Each structure stands twice: as structure tokens, then as C-alpha cells.
UniProtKB/TrEMBL annotation:
Residue ranges of every copy of the Exocyst complex component Sec10 N-terminal domain listed in the record: 40-146
UniProt KW Transmembrane helix keyword: no
Keywords: Coiled coil, Exocytosis, Transport
Entries under Pfam families matching the protein: Sec10_HB (PF07393), Sec10_N (PF20667)
GO cellular component term of the entry, any: cytoplasm
Organism: Branchiostoma floridae
Coiled coil (UniProt feature): 49-101
Domain Exocyst complex component Sec10-like alpha-helical bundle span(s) in chain numbering: 237-685
Protein name: Exocyst complex component 5
GO biological process terms on file: exocytosis
Family the UniProt entry places it in: Belongs to the SEC10 family.
Length: 709
């Protein structure tokens, strides 16, 4: 009936009646009068009409049920919306009230600040006026005893006081205060002269901050121009002298700079660098600092005419650093390798680990393949190292920082022609030390610690931590690559070489991580299979009384879900993004397949069927709460629907088999679950199986034309 009439196809009554009559022997309009048997046709029509009535009633009940459900959900939704609107209005009112209170408090705070300022300013002015009156009385009497005017270290403080007293003295009447005014004027000139001398001394010593402070104080004095004159004089003394004396000052100035560079400056550079020859780190830092300072000096001197060669200063700088620049990149790469080795060894020593050679190739690869595909634990024993991942973000950051410092020196000390190659050499060392000797080594150790596919004891899962920490370090490496290396090589052929090198290394390690995740999932599923195989007996799903139904699920199910919850927490703590989604999905699909195959190993009576439904429901809740993967949720929903076939009464079995949840499944899958029932060969179930077998043979052995005939 369901095959003849589908609610998904348009219904043609005449065509339907004609097809129905055609299938009955002697009933069709083309069958001939001699073969026509009206009673057969009448029986078929009567039976079909009854089935159509039943189908109509079922459809009508379904429509009414859906309408009721829709109306109920509509009411609930309206109620929820109304409640949310009410809560939203309450929140809005509270926000407005809070905003008003904040504004009120802010107004009070501002008002209080104004009041405090109104009280404090006059008080501060009164205190300052009292001090000025005290100082003025000393100048009036001629007995100047205050420390501020005699202590050379308080010169700027004395300058502020004398400048204010000088302004006050100009407003005083003559005759009575002439002596005081003369004393103030004399002290004013004395302090002004001392400030100018302090400025000159600071200029000669190169103390910019002190020069800035003194200049700010002199700004309020009449002699501020003397400060400017002193600065200009000190700066242009030599150049002006040369211009005044020689007819070709450019050549003379160039010779002067040449003597300074090849004399004192070169000697200073040589002494500074030779002193640190035994300490490579200090040598490189000193070389970088001296070259940077000399380059800045050359830039400052370039505003003076030093001859006809515009590149004179750059050539001179490279000349005095020549032998150091030629050997620089060799010194840099040797130091970088040594420094990174020290960082790595310090880390492994801190965790009491002696690095060892990871065996590969030949017999070792064969042992690994056998161990990964079977339960034969051949080769070295599995060692988990107490969950140590042998990865450290701190170590990675230190290695990356060393490489960034090296690239910074390389950018300054390498010629434009050599810079791309030198920068790539530095980053190749980083790839070797960080990626191969640290990350790849840790991944290989982690792979060796993964359990066999079907362990007999609960496996210790640590590889998720290896993946999580490895990915975190890869993100740091990518950022350093983009920020520090790429700007130095982006417009050169070396850029593509570096990108290719990075991609190859990352793909190599990624492939190992993916393989490790696959083996870890296999071990998890293998342990679950071991639990189900050893702790679930054939009689678990054929209980003789209702005592078994008192439990919500079987002990094996409880143990499985506890294991899953524990391991999913680890998975979520270590993985993120697409890695997490793919791993959860893969585990969920494999777990579903395992449960599906496990359930098909038993025969169920009605009580056992209820226990199976309880177990599957617990698995369904577990994956929904922990995995949160829609595909896996759908698989377990369908499995739950299949398990319902184990308990439904025989009269309703056909209806359930063609229900919404099972309609899309292959009939063989549905019937395989019905076959698990202890009563599947009795009564109507036996007939149902016979019909199913007949239809299966017809689909397998007859074509469309034979089927129609």
C-alpha cells in the first residue's frame, strides 16, 4: 500500500484504479472478457478502499496533532516574547535610573572639586607670597643667608625665585628700595650667567635632558638668547673656523672628518670590539650599537659640505667597520646555533630528560605499522613519561626572541645584496632548532606513547596536549615569520624559498599530528570496545524479571560514558577551531559505529529491549552534551529509533518501520534490528520477514519489465 501510494507524488485517481486493476489477474480493461473475474476486482477495490480510509484517518490525526503542537508552540513563543519584552523594559528602566544616579554623583564630584580648588589655590598663593616676602627682606637688609642662593645644586630653584623677585622689584618705588633693587639685579645677572655656563657644560657632555631643563628655566630670563648663542657657537666652532681660514673648506672639513673617523673613532671601535671577542653575545651587541651610532653620526655630518663625493660618509663608515662586517654573518649564525642549543638543553635538564635518538626506517617503521594496525605490542615498550609533552611555549618564545634580535642586527649590518640570503640563513636555524629539534622531537615522543588500537587496560591519553601546545607554538612562529623575516625578503626570490621551506616543515609535522590524533581516537574507541565486550554479557538483554529495569542503564554503559566525558574534557582543553571540530566528529562517528555493531550481537526480549533503549539514550545524551556535533546527534537519534523496534508490539511494527525517522534508511538495516527480537520468527513477525525476503529477491533478480509483468 505504502509503495503504491506516496504522499510525496501527485495523486491521479484514474491512473491509480487502472494500475490497481492491472495487477489483479483478469481485472484490467485490456485483459479480455474471458479472463475477467469481477469478484476478484471487487475484493481488491473493497480492501483498497478500507486501507485508504485508514490512511486518511492517520493522515488527519497527524495533521490535527501537528496543528495542536503548532498552536501550543505559538502560545509558548508568544509568552516567552512577552516575558523577554517585560525583562527588557525592566532592564531599560534600571539602566536609565543608574544613568541618572551616575550623572547626579558626577555633578557632585565636579562641584566638590571646584570647591577644593577654590580653597587650595588662594592658600598656595598665600604660602608662595610669604616665602617671597621672606626672601625680599633678606635683599632689603643686605644679609642674604638663605641656602637656596648659596647652594650650587639648587640653581634652578634660585632662578625661579630671583626671576619673580626681579619682576616685583620693577614695580617698587625708587629711593626707598634702590639698594634692594640693585642687589636683586646683581643676583639676577649672576644666576643667569651660571645657568648659561651650566648649559655649555651639559652641551659639551652631551647631556640632553639637563640642557632641556636649563633652557626651559632660561626661557623666562632676558639672557635666553645667550643660551641659544652658546649652543650655536659650540656646534659650529670647528666648521666656522675652517670656513674662515681655508679657501677650499670642503676638502679641509672632509680631511678633518676622515682623521676623526680613521683615528680616534676607529681606535675606539677596535678597542671596544676586541675587548668582547671572548663573549660573542656582547661582541654582537657592541658591534650593532657602535655601527648604529656611527651611522647616526654620519647622517648628522652629512649636512656639511665634505667634498664632491656625496657618498663619502657611508664609504668611510663601511671602511672602518669593514673587517667586522665581512665576518659578521658567520659569527651571528654560529652564536645563534649555540645560544639556541643552550636554551633547549636548559629546558630538557630542568625536566630531567636526556634527549635520545628516535629510531626510524627499516624494522622500526615495520614495527610501528604492525603496532598501529593490530594489538601486537612489538618493539619498544610504550612509555608515557608521566604525561610530559616535551613542549614549552616559554622555550619557543626565547628561541623566537633570539632570532628576532639576530634579524634586527642582520638588517643593519648586512649589505642590501647580502641581506635576503643572510636573513633566510638565520630563519633556517630557527626552523631547525624550534621545529625539528623541539616540536618534531616532542611529536615523535608523543606518537610512541599512544596506546595500541585495542588496549586491555585504560589508555593514558596525552597526545591531545601535544597537539594543542604544538599548534600554539606554530601560531607564534607564523607571527614572527610575518613580522620579522618577510619585510626583509618580500621583494626578492628568497621570499618564495622561505615560504616553501616553512610550508614543507609545517606539513611534515601536521601530518604526524593528524596521524597521532587518528591513532588516539582509535585507542579510545578500542578501549570502549573492550569495556562493552568484557562487561556486557549475552544475558544482559534477556532478563527474566523486571529487576534489571530498576537501573537507568547497564554498568558497561555507565563506564563508557564516564570515560568519554573525561577524555572529551582533555580534548576541549587542548584543541580548538577546526582541529577540535574534526576530532570530535571523527570520534563521534566511530563511537556510533561501535555501538551499532555491538547492539547487533545480542538477542532481545521486551525487557532487554528496554535496557538497550536506556543505554542508547544515555549514549545519546552523552554525545549531545559533550561532543555537541549535529551529525553525531543525528546518528544517535536514528539509532535510538531503531532500538524502539525491539520493544514495539508486533501489530504496530510495520507502522513504526515506515515512520519518519526510519523511512530514509535501507530496509535491510531496519529489518536487521527487527531480527534481533527474540520473537522475530513467530506469528506476524515471521510473515513480515517472509514478505521482506520475497521483495528483496524481486529487487535483486528481476528487471523493471519483468517486475511490471
Amino acid at each position: 500500500m505504502n509503495k503504491q501510494l506516496s504522499d510525496k507524488e501527485p495523486f491521479d485517481p484514474e491512473d491509480y484504479v487502472e494500475r490497481l486493476a492491472w495487477r489483479q489477474h483478469g481485472g484490467g480493461s485490456k485483459g479480455g472478457a474471458e479472463n475477467f473475474d469481477p469478484q476478484i476486482l471487487l475484493n481488491v477495490f473493497t480492501h483498497t478502499i478500507e486501507e485508504l480510509k485508514v490512511l486518511n484517518e492517520k493522515t488527519q490525526r497527524r495533521v490535527e496533532k501537528l496543528e495542536q503542537l503548532s498552536q501550543k508552540e505559538e502560545k509558548e513563543h508568544k509568552a516567552r516574547v512577552a516575558e523577554l519584552q517585560k525583562l527588557n523594559q525592566m532592564a531599560l528602566n534600571q539602566f536609565q535610573e543608574l544613568d541618572e544616579r551616575i550623572n547626579h554623583i558626577a555633578t557632585k564630584v565636579v562641584h566638590l572639586g571646584d570647591q577644593l580648588e577654590g580653597v587650595n589655590i588662594p592658600r598656595a598663593r598665600a604660602v608662595e607670597a610669604e616665602k617671597l616676602m621672606k626672601y625680599f627682606s633678606e635683599f632689603l637688609s643686605g644679609d642674604i643667608t638663605s641656602d637656596v642662593f648659596t647652594d650650587p645644586f639648587r640653581l634652578q630653584e634660585a632662578a625661579d625665585i630671583i626671576q619673580k623677585l626681579h619682576l616685583i622689584a620693577q614695580e617698587l618705588p625708587p629711593d626707598k628700595f634702590d639698594a634692594a633693587k640693585e642687589r636683586i639685579a646683581a643676583k639676577y645677572l649672576e644666576i643667569e650667567g651660571n645657568l648659561v655656563e651650566q648649559f655649555k657644560t651639559a652641551h659639551q657632555a652631551g647631556q640632553k635632558e639637563e640642557m632641556k631643563e636649563v633652557a626651559a628655566v632660561l626661557l623666562n630670563f632676558k639672557g635666553y638668547s645667550h643660551c641659544i648663542d652658546a649652543f650655536i657657537y659650540q656646534s659650529q666652532k670647528v666648521n666656522q673656523l675652517i670656513l674662515d681660514v681655508f679657501s677650499q673648506p670642503e676638502n679641509v672639513m672632509g680631511k678633518f672628518v676622515l682623521n676623526v673617523y680613521e683615528g680616534k673613532l676607529q681606535n675606539h671601535i677596535q678597542e671596544s670590539l676586541d675587548k668582547h671577542r671572548s663573549d660573542t653575545e656582547k661582541y654582537l651587541k657592541t658591534l650593532f650599537q657602535l655601527f648604529q651610532q656611527t651611522s647616526q653620526l654620519s647622517a648628522d655630518l652629512s649636512k656639511y659640505k665634505l667634498g664632491s663625493d656625496t657618498n663619502f660618509l657611508n664609504k668611510l663608515t663601511k671602511h672602518i667597520f669593514g673587517k667586522y662586517l665581512e665576518s659578521y654573518i658567520g659569527v651571528e649564525t654560529t652564536f645563534l646555533k649555540t645560544r639556541m642549543d643552550i636554551i633547549l638543553n636548559r629546558y630538557y635538564n630542568s625536566i630531567n630528560h636526556q634527549k635520545r635518538q628516535i629510531p626510524s626506517g627499516g624494522i622500526h617503521d615495520l614495527q610501528a605499522r604492525i603496532r598501529n594496525k593490530t594489538n601486537l605490542n612489538i618493539g619498544p615498550a610504550i612509555e608515557t613519561y608521566g604525561g610530559e609533552t616535551f613542549l614549552s611555549q616559554e622555550v619557543a618564545i626565547n628561541l623566537l626572541q633570539e632570532s628576532k634580535e639576530a634579524l634586527k642586527r642582520c638588517e643593519l649590518l648586512s649589505s642590501s645584496k647580502d641581506l635576503p640570503g643572510s636573513a633566510v640563513r638565520i630563519f633556517d636555524i630557527l626552523f631547525e632548532k624550534l621545529c625539528m629539534e623541539h616540536i618534531d622531537y616532542a611529536v615523535d615522543i608523543g606518537l610512541q606513547a599512544i596506546s595500541i588500537p585495542e588496549p586491555k587496560t585504560e589508555p593514558e591519553i596525552y597526545f591531545f596536549d601535544v597537539v594543542g601546545q604544538g599548534n600554539a607554538i606554530f601560531h607564534l612562529l607564523e607571527k614572527t615569520f610575518s613580522d620579522a623575516l618577510v619585510p626583509l625578503i618580500i621583494s626578492t626570490p628568497r621570499y618564495q624559498e622561505a615560504v616553501t621551506r616553512k610550508r614543507e616543515i609545517m606539513e611534515l609535522i601536521d601530518s604526524k599530528l593528524d596521524g597521532g590524533l587518528d591513532r588516539t581516537i582509535t585507542a579510545m574507541v578500542g578501549w570502549i570496545k573492550h569495556i562493552l565486550t568484557t562487561e556486557q554479557k549475552k544475558t544482559d538483554f534477556r532478563p527474566e524479571d523486571d529487576s534489571a529495569l530498576m537501573e537507568l542503564y547497564t554498568p558497561a554503559c555507565h563506564k563508557v560514558t564516564n570515560f568519554i566525558k573525561k577524555e572529551i574534557i582533555k580534548m576541549r582543553d587542548s584543541l580548538d577551531g577546526k582541529n577540535l571540530d574534526a576530532t570530535l566528529t571523527e570520534f563521534g562517528v566511530r563511537f556510533h559505529r561501535l555501538v551499532y555493531e555491538h547492539l547487533q550481537q545480542f538477542t532481545y526480549n521486551p525487557r532487554g529491549g528496554m535496557l538497550a533503549i536506556c543505554d542508547v539514550n544515555e549514549y545519546r545524551k552523552c554525545v549531545k552534551d559533550e561532543l555537541k556535533v549535529p551529525l553525531v546527534d543525528s546518528l544517535f537519534e536514528t539509532l535510538h529509533a531503531l532500538c524502539n523496534l525491539l520493544v514495539v508490539v508486533p501489530d504496530n511494527l510495520k507502522q513504526v518501520c515506515t515512520g519518519e525517522q526510519l523511512a530514509s534508511l535501507d530496509r535491510s538495516v531496519v529489518m536487521s534490528f527487527v531480527q534481533l527480537r527474540a520473537d522475530h520468527k513467530t506469528g506476524r513477525l515471521g510473515k513480515l520477514f517472509a514478505d521482506f525476503a520475497q521483495k528483496t529477491r524481486e529487487r535483486a533478480g528481476t528487471g523493471p519489465s519483468e517486475h511490471a509483468a
